[in-house]
Amino acid sequence: MSFLKPPSRRTVLAGSVASFGLMALSDAAAAIAPPGISLIEAPSNLGLSPTGPGPEPGCWQAPAAFRQAGFQGSLRPAETIVLDRPAYRAEAQAGTRLRNGLTIRTYSERLAASVANALGAGRFPVVLGGDCSILLGCLLGARRAGRLGLVHIDGHSDYANPSNYDTTQRLGAAAGMDLALATGKGEATLTRWDGVAGPLVEPLDAVQLGERNVDGTGHPYPDFPAAGIAQWTVQDIARIGVVPSAGAALQHLAGRGIDRFWIHLDLDVLAESVLPAVDSPGEPGLALDALEEMLVPILGDPGALGIDVTIYDPARDPDWRHAPALSRMLLSSLRHAGRVMEPESPPA
């Protein structure tokens, strides 16, 4: 099942202002002048396990699919940075039990430099992946300038770590560990970074939105509840609404004294009936319009530093037919949040 179409943005935000003290959408847009977008393409599959008939997953093709759909052209970024596609290896690397772990570390450092340069120039980075391991480079680029929070929007908590995942039996896939690694839980290869004392994000400074696999039997990661990461599952979001859930996440960060945070968007938070072309599709999940309703207040918050977008897999999407709708949703979210001006020619 996917969520029913939510109320209009005006109605939902009015209720959100009353409940959570958020600015109305027009006020939020007026409060921040578009700083200019730095579009960073990060076509990495490094954090995924091999699947399907091909030699590697197809998420690396997502930036090209978005480009064909018109996203990059309509976004009109102030700059575009295209990172090379890193070499994917299915076999283990010496010194790590994470698949492509050493390569992920090197790639994360390169991505971090691009993110840090964008932030230093006063721009808002939009990072198109790729798989969820690119979150680490994004956070590293922001973290070296000081403490930050994280809004992790994902259909899974991505909290696999040595306490609940045995890497001696098989290699660990960083795309299923990104939230654990970001909060300091996991192999030192991807949790300890030059110039950073402690984790990229303290667990209490992170919010997870969208986990779909919590039911009466407990959490899919048994050690997650004790970690201190605030979470609103997809079931919680269905009950209280997408914009109130976004408001609760922002309130949590504000209560922690967080005035700068990164946004991670794994598109598998969408219901499988909406977007089957992801690494781990499933139900329940969000509809496209519901995801936009959630993103607008988060993107529009003055503390938002940037966003990475991951896991759309064009290899699972014949004719790349889902790319135009995803492009429209992302552009509309950024536009209504006041991050970009009205595009001249939205994707068809």
What does this structure look like?
With 348 residues, this protein is of the alpha/beta class. 33% of the residues lie in helices and 11% in strands. An 8-stranded parallel sheet has the order 2-1-3-8-7-4-5-6, sandwiched between helices. The two termini are 27 Å apart.
Q: How is this fold's topology laid out?
A:
Blueprint: H1 9-20, H2 25-31, E1 37-41, H3 62-69, H4 71-75, E2 79-82, H5 101-120, E3 124-128, H6 134-143, E4 149-153, H7 178-182, E5 206-209, E6 230-232, H8 234-240, H9 242-255, E7 261-266, H10 288-300, E8 304-310, H11 323-336
Parallel strand pairs: 1-2, 1-3, 3-8, 4-5, 4-7, 5-6, 7-8
Briefly summarize what is shown:
The protein has 348 residues and is of the alpha/beta class. It has helices spanning 9-20, 25-31, 62-69, 71-75, 101-120, 134-143, 178-182, 234-240, 242-255, 288-300, 323-336; strands at 37-41, 79-82, 124-128, 149-153, 206-209, 230-232, 261-266, 304-310. It has a single domain (9-336), classed as Ureohydrolase domain (Arginase, Chain A), CATH 3.40.800.
Question: What is the overall pLDDT average?
Answer: 89
Q: How many whole angstroms does the radius of gyration measure?
A: 18 Å
- List the helices and strands in order: HHEHHEHEHEHEEHHEHEH
Continuous helix count: 11
Overall tally of domains: 1
How many β-strands, per DSSP? Answer: 8
Which class best fits the helix and strand makeup? alpha/beta
